[in-house]
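look at this one:
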Amino acid sequence: MIIPTHAPYDGSSKPFTIGLKPLDLADWIEVDASLATHLAEKHRLYAEIPEKVFVEEPQTRPAQQEVLDLLTTHLPARYPETYRATENGVEILEARPVPPPALDAPLVAASLLVQEDLILMRRGDDGWRLAAGSLCFPSSWTLTEKFGKALHTIHIPVPGFGPGSRPDELIARMFDGLQGQAMERFNWSIQAGDALYHPLSNIQRDDRATTRPSRFADEGEINAGAFIRVERQTLRKLPVSRDVLFTIRIHLDPLAVLARHPDKARLAASFAAQLLALDTAQLDYKGLTADRDRLVAWLQAATAD
């Protein structure tokens, strides 16, 4: 039976809050049985749409190398059954040979070692901006639209997180105050299908909020096609460049797995409560306005004892 690795909808996290918690650096990167599948998808995306999944300011190359060096040290020590240190860096044991990506940036090389996406944030006159990033698995946003933008601009579409808001000010202070520690937070959404590459442009988001289409028009689609998309996000400040590295790890679980979970009643009740607590703007942002009530009804029926 599949057991979700993370279930922030169990009440341990609250949607549309900062929710950052201290993280032991030993647990910075997560590796599981989906490593090969995730890396194969990254290779495909780099080969087919490199301009959509990687961006960089040229002066970020030293910081990108810093990220690669950190992973080269961390991975063999933390996961010796999966990674091995070599003269040229680190290799993934039992990995199938694949052609190297056309992009030769250190951040690309780093991203092809792990399941996480890697985003570099750099301090400037307008605050912390997205200065480089490998984003193969976006959760309803696009890298090119956020590239070079400051955090307060990036967060404009998020209800309650726009420029001048209290969360905006708190996040800026947290980025400034980060030192040697790492932080972790979780987020969740519900999508149709199990695609890891799940972009959404600002125009598409505005259209979705206006038309409010159902993702699960047919009666059986919620049970068969709905997936819980959990983002595990970490933050740490790089010791040399002082840039902030933002990692995003995607976990996809079929919604139907909750009906077979040993703690299904509690999880379903908490998940339904979080869905019911979302206001209209939050539902529009998550694209759940048309389907929220059906999802709640499914949770209540499918996980009842």
About this structure: The mean pLDDT is 93.
